[in-house]
Amino acid sequence: MVYAVVRAGGRQEKVEVGTIVVLDRLKADVNGTVELSPVLFVDGDTITHDPKALAKITVTAEVIGHERGPKIVIQHFKNKTGYKRRQGFRHDQTRVKITGIK
């Protein structure tokens, strides 16, 4: 069993070949490829977390598409003053498919 933990968008994701992951928006074209930096690499019984050894490992992914996340509603309310404020936010995301861990 081969998998890697990659750093993407301020978070860490566990990925294997063929995994589809939703990340923060990446500056890449649709059907283009991106490289993700591994934090941990597991190959059977061997676990690699040394930065020098991880520099030799590449995790490649194909960009499937760009999308927007679910709407987050932000509400402010102050009692007895008539103050109400409502704001919405949708996060930009990129859906990628892991094509190789070498």
From TrEMBL:
<comment type="subunit">
    <text>Part of the 50S ribosomal subunit. Contacts protein L20.</text>
</comment>
<dbReference type="Pfam" id="PF00829">
    <property type="entry name" value="Ribosomal_L21p"/>
</dbReference>
<protein>
    <recommendedName>
        <fullName>Large ribosomal subunit protein bL21</fullName>
    </recommendedName>
</protein>
<comment type="function">
    <text>This protein binds to 23S rRNA in the presence of protein L20.</text>
</comment>
<keyword id="KW-0687">Ribonucleoprotein</keyword>
<dbReference type="InterPro" id="IPR001787">
    <property type="entry name" value="Ribosomal_bL21"/>
</dbReference>
<dbReference type="InterPro" id="IPR036164">
    <property type="entry name" value="bL21-like_sf"/>
</dbReference>
<comment type="similarity">
    <text>Belongs to the bacterial ribosomal protein bL21 family.</text>
</comment>
<dbReference type="GO" id="GO:0005840">
    <property type="term" value="C:ribosome"/>
</dbReference>
<keyword id="KW-0694">RNA-binding</keyword>
<keyword id="KW-0699">rRNA-binding</keyword>
<dbReference type="InterPro" id="IPR028909">
    <property type="entry name" value="bL21-like"/>
</dbReference>
<keyword id="KW-0689">Ribosomal protein</keyword>
